[in-house]
Design goal:
The complex is a heterodimer of chains A (328) and B (288). By secondary structure, chain A is mainly α. Chain A has 15 helices and two strands. Classes of the chains: A mainly alpha (328), B mainly alpha (288).
């Protein structure tokens, strides 16, 4: 499939409008989760919001611009370490300050590395980002000022639900930003680069500049999510901050939800978390095995993502049609 | 200076294993554009094949190499033919996600069957070594390197000389033209994936001689394979060999001179520099 066909099929640059309305309604309903007074649901909800934010970030560079990053967790990790360092070294405990500083750090890191890295095409960009993520994790593990291998304790000072609301705001802001960016000149430049970089350059879109912008915004989202996560989690060490799951799950979620759409990341995060939790509570021994099987089945039967179902030309008929669309 | 030579030799010895691990990964990626995240789990299955044969019938691990190759080939062939082929023309992310799911499935299945405890293979010759000057070389590692070289050479011969090999290379160049010329794409895709899995299985047996075994042991090898492919250039047999040896030496020197915790970081930083200076790998051709 040419990506261009997917763009049309999913209902334009922001994705299917009805799917977006439903998703925004779900997001608004999620504000009320802490009022259930259930630590379990609050944790779960914050997890969904965190993964949705990471997915939205990944979606900008991987979905809209077509540059698949395997290392966006690096910004999440740097974000969490920013919060931890503020707490540990300067006794700054404001979550707002932490989020702002984390975003600055993330964007700075993306700008510095983006210049050389984003000259690479396709797979090679992916591997380079993976290398950056792994190397950064190893370097952080060896810096004493950052707690080296044993990490930091981040004592939460605010009421527990503060972190839930903070994560909600970060997620909602990321979604709004994605919507506005997608509809602006910026979004069309990103998609133009994805569809045909040479043609975009000929038409006056400076590819390197726009790719770096996409990556920097993507970094800001992931870093903000990391900053809030550190406060809520209460403890940060390299394996937690740079967890492989936080790298792979957002990619899986965006693909499940719908690549290059505004609603897709949150839809994917909701569905994957729901599947994961259900399997976990019913089959604790073999839940990861089932999880793998679910991914395989979904990819084979819904290779274009779940939002495809909402599409007028999709629906169940579309599923039947798309099964085998990519066969050899 | 003695340390330098010892590190160099150790790096080259371990680099042979890296080369075989990366070879299958590189073929699958280069020919079918599939980033096979399940490659590490195939390495693990190969290692456990050697373990089961060794602990049940006391079969020498070197003799398990063909067994592991054939078993994994058949497994890989079926996976590609009956699962991946359905979505293989989709954008690369789709197969990326699919193989991620497969890898979860295989690793956790192995966890059920073999349990999570760490196992190892200790043969009679495991501890024996010899010295050249001040450099000590373990026999097992030397034989491992030799076997790795033989496997790489056989692979190169088969790809360039056999009819099937030529058909596979034709597929990588232009799938539609190959199909028009009578190449059975669905079958050959499965053969390539089977080969990738078989080579991973063979590599797994070699790995089992020097590393301990547990179901998640394969995961780091996916990253190794990634890096080796970039160092050497994608889809090339010689590239995988050169990349593997370079990566082995880099890791050995990195852990010696910069710190044990940082050897991977050193290798990855070198990877980034190579990528920026030579985006298609050290041996890669422009426009390939």
């Amino acid at each position: 499939m040419r990506p261009g066909r997917a763009l049309g099929a999913l209902g334009g640059i922001t994705g299917n409008a009805n799917a977006l309305r439903v998703t925004v309604a779900i997001l608004i309903l999620m504000v009320f989760v802490p009022m259930l007074h259930s630590g379990y649901y609050e944790n779960l909800g914050r997890g969904v919001l965190m993964f949705a934010t990471l997915s939205l970030g990944w979606n900008l560079i991987g979905g809209y611009t077509g540059y698949v990053s395997f290392g966006n967790v690096v910004f999440f990790g740097l974000g969490s370490y920013t919060t931890a360092a503020l707490w540990q070294h300067w006794h700054q405990q404001s979550i707002v300050l932490a989020v702002i500083c984390a975003m600055v750090v993330g964007v700075a890191f993306a700008l510095v590395l983006g210049m050389p890295i984003l000259r690479l095409r396709g797979h090679y960009f992916g591997i380079a980002t993976l290398g950056i993520a792994l190397a950064t994790q190893e370097i952080v593990s060896n810096v004493d000022w950052l707690g080296a291998g044993s990490g930091f304790t981040v004592r939460p000072v605010d009421a527990y639900s503060t972190y839930y609301y903070a994560m909600w705001i970060v997620c909602a802001a990321s979604m709004l930003a994605t919507y506005l960016i997608a509809r602006s000149k910026l979004g069309y430049a990103f998609v133009a680069i994805r569809e045909n970089e040479e043609a975009a350059a000929v038409l006056g879109v400076d590819p390197t500049r726009y790719k770096v912008i996409a990556w920097a915004i993507s970094a800001a989202m992931a870093a903000a999510a990391g900053a809030v996560f550190a406060g809520a989690n209460g403890f940060i060490d390299p394996p937690t901050a740079f967890a492989l799951d936080n790298n792979v799950f957002p990619i899986v979620m965006v693909i499940l939800g719908g690549v290059g759409t505004v609603a897709g990341p949150l839809v994917g995060a909701l569905i994957l978390t729901a599947i994961n939790e259900t399997l976990w509570s019913h089959f604790p021994q073999i839940h990861t095995l089932f999880f793998g099987a679910v991914i395989v089945v979904v990819v084979v039967f819904l290779p274009r993502g779940i939002l495809w179902l909402f599409n007028t030309r999709g629906g169940w008929k579309g599923v039947a049609g798309s099964l085998g669309a990519y066969r050899v | 200076m003695q340390l330098f030579w010892q590190d160099l030799v150790n790096g080259i010895l371990v680099g042979g294993i890296f080369a075989v691990v990366a070879l299958g990964f590189s073929l699958v990626w280069g020919i079918m554009n599939i980033i096979n995240l399940a490659h590490g789990s195939f390495v693990m299955l190969g290692a456990y094949t050697a373990y089961v044969l060794f602990s049940t019938w006391n079969v020498d691990p070197f003799l398990s190499i063909p067994v592991a190759f054939v078993l994994l080939f058949v497994f890989g062939y079926c996976v590609q033919r009956f699962v991946i082929n359905f979505v293989v023309r989709a954008p690369i992310l789709t197969t990326f996600l699919l193989t991620f799911g497969l890898s979860l499935l295989i690793v956790n299945f192995a966890l059920l069957v073999f349990h999570g405890d760490v196992k190892g293979i200790t043969t009679q010759y495991s501890g024996s070594n010899f010295s050249i000057g001040s450099v000590t070389i373990a026999w097992v590692k030397l034989w491992t390197l030799l076997v790795a070289l033989v496997i790489t050479a056989l692979m190169q011969l088969w790809l360039t000389r056999s009819k099937t090999g030529r058909a596979i290379r034709a597929m990588a160049m232009d799938i539609d033209a190959a199909q028009l010329s009578g190449v059975r794409v669905a079958h050959l895709y499965a053969v390539v994936f089977g080969l990738g899995a078989g080579l991973a299985g063979a590599a797994g047996v070699l790995v089992s001689l020097s590393y301990s075994l547990q179901p998640s042991m394969g995961d780091p090898f996916v990253i190794t394979a990634f890096v080796v492919c970039v160092l050497g250039g994608l889809g090339s047999v010689q590239g995988a060999l050169v990349g593997g040896l370079i990566f082995g030496v880099l890791e050995a020197f990195g852990s010696q001179y910069i710190g044990t915790g940082l050897q991977d970081a050193v290798a990855l930083v070198v990877l980034l520099i190579v990528l920026i200076l030579r985006p298609r790998g050290l041996l890669g051709k422009a426009g390939a």
